[in-house]
Amino acid sequence: MHTETIAQHGSHDPPPPGERPASATASLVAGMAVGIGIMGAVLALADIGSPLRAPFTLFFLLMAPAGALAVALGRMDPLGRAVAAGAGALAVDLLVAQTMLALHLWSLRGGVLAVAGLSGALLLAGAVRRRTGQAPEAGRAEMDVAVYRPGELTGADRSAWTALQSRARSLGTPQLANPFLSPEFTLAVGHCRSGVRIAVLHEHGEPAAFLPFQRSVLGTGRAVGLGVSDAQGLVHRPGFRWDARELLRACGLSVLEFDHLVEGQKPFETASFSGHGSPVIEVDQGFEAYLAGLRARSPKFTRTTLAKERKLGRDIGPLRYVHDERDPAALRTLMEWKSAQYRRTGRSDRFAHPWIVRLVQHLFHTRSASFAGLLSVLYAGERPVAAHFGLRSESVLACWFPAYDPRFAKFSPGLVLHLRMAQAAAAESVGHLDLGRGAKDYKDSLKTRELMVSEGWVMRRHPVALGHRARRAPVRALRNAVLARPELFAPADRLLKRVGRIRSGR
Hints:
Helix content is 49%, strand content 18%. By secondary structure, the chain is of the alpha+beta class. It is elongated. Helix 2 runs parallel beside helix 4 (108-133). The longest helix has 26 residues, at 20-45. It contains 15 helices and 14 strands. The chain has helices spanning 20-45, 53-72, 78-102, 108-133, 155-168, 183-192, 244-250, 287-297, 299-315, 328-344, 354-364, 413-427, 441-446, 463-484, 486-504; strands at residues 5-6, 144-148, 196-203, 206-215, 220-223, 235-236, 255-261, 274-282, 319-322, 372-380, 383-392, 396-404, 432-434, 449-459.
């Protein structure tokens, strides 16, 4: 099994014997390219009339800045580095030509000298940056990181990852026990999406932390399942310390973006991050204790919801709750309800994306002692009236896709379902239900408190990272401003619902 990256400062195992010829071939090709480039520069500077002069000089003008940029881009993904270096080389050549023409100084010799000078400066800057970037901070152990594709993760590493999550609740870091941070979720996303990678950080030869992420060909990174995942970050031992930018370099990333970074991830949190509440229902003291607290906090809401539950049973049929429904037809019904809800409220339909449908179906069939995709259904008679699909770890039930049959909306079947889910979760010794980030009336009514998740990115000084930030920051800032201010959110929500009604033909 081969890792993509053996980072940063640890010992490097020698390559397998079968890889040595490939390395030698690569060195030979690189040497030939350098020789051709040097010959092209010599032919141009000496003004030697040779049929090789034009092609070799052009080769030099392209390869000199491209090679220097490739060195400066460091551990970026190889394909992304090649694309960025090639585009940068063209930009350098065009800049030199335009400048010299504007100053009426153009000559072939001058162009070659200018490109050589700029390439040398880039090469020197990259070498200095790499040298200084590899110097560890005083008093901090050097990082030892290996990056795997999902199928390359060993059984021992998966067991170590699960063990870290199992101990998280008792060690006071319950956020790390969230099933969205489990190896099963990462492997499922890897089954449905390309670019999924897992960084394993070692300490004293043992795995001490795991970082799942998705990487683009240009070296931009995002948390696994960004946009559908409600918990993201580094799963680690208590007290484990890491350097965020050093970790990005080891992973071949220029930037790493989160929208649900859990608490306790200080090395990742920069000025770009903003915090948001994620409501939870705590049932670690039992369901009766939770219900008593709910009555004390919201007596009218509790009475009304329980009265609607009784009326639903009388008017429609006897209620039956299935905490772990295994019928795939029920899952299809839930997705149909949820798609209709998205369209009705003017939101983007997540189930219109085939990969999300495949992900949910894959997780529905994923089960282990520490993880499961959990479909819960509330029936009135034999008719399903509300359903929810989420993920369960040993101590957390992550609420994900709740929906109900709108024909029974007056009975608030979704609220009834959540109370039944809380009761069943408490019976299974689950610590809390994570309702997920986002302002919703039902979440405010049911929650006992809020955890904090953060949105933002950590980045290295890199042109790709700067471009990513310039593209993403304005849109994200505008969206969060609307969500945070009721005077902006209310009219925007009404507009979305009006659009949804038009799309639904209602």
